[in-house]
Amino acid sequence: QVQLVESGGGLGQAGGSPRLSCTVSGRTISNLDMGWYRQNPGTEREVVAGITWNGGTTAYEDSVKGRFTISRDNAKNTMYLQMNSLKPEDTAIYYCNGRGRPPYWGRGTQVTVSS
Q1: pLDDT tens-digit profile of 35-89?
Q2: How far apart are CA 79 and CA 91, in angstroms?
Q3: Which of these, 17, 32, 51, 75, has the minimum number of CB atoms within 10 Å of its CB?
Q4: Could you give the CA distance from residue 91 to residue 78 in angstroms, rounded to a whole number?
Q5: Burial 30-50 (b: 16+ CB within 10 A, else e)
Q6: Chain-wide mean pLDDT for the chain?
Q7: Which residues pair with 83 in a beta bridge?
């Protein structure tokens, strides 16, 4: 059974720099494109960032460009999201996604940013 477990969320202040982690068990991520999504109650889940299987290509949602960095360590079967210059509007539940068929999802980690 494939499991994705997010960690690193919590309550922080605007301007903070937490790092989220997504550790995968049950399969290797070395051939799996992955991404981070976020969602607030009553809204659709939106993609935040994506990364190809080897880390060679990354992409970001416009509002996080220049502030967030997605990365991965295939040897550790882990993906990361470095979040810098946090803003209150970054508050959301952040989900780890593995782009398999069907896609894999973690349960999410709450990030709350106070002004």
Answers
A1: 999 999 999 999 999 999 999 999 999 999 999 999 999 999 999 999 999 999 9
A2: 20
A3: 75
A4: 23
A5: eebbbbbbbeeeeeeeeebbb
A6: 97
A7: 68
Q: Alpha-carbon distance 104 to 97, whole Å?
A: 6
How far apart are the two ends of the chain, measured CA to CA in Å? Answer: 40
Structure tokens at 80: 């990361």
- The pLDDT assigned to 73 comes to 98
Instruction: Say how far apart CA 17 and CA 15 lie, in whole Å.
Output: 7
Separation between Cα atoms, residue 38 and residue 42, nearest integer Å: 12
- Hey, what amino acid is at 44? E
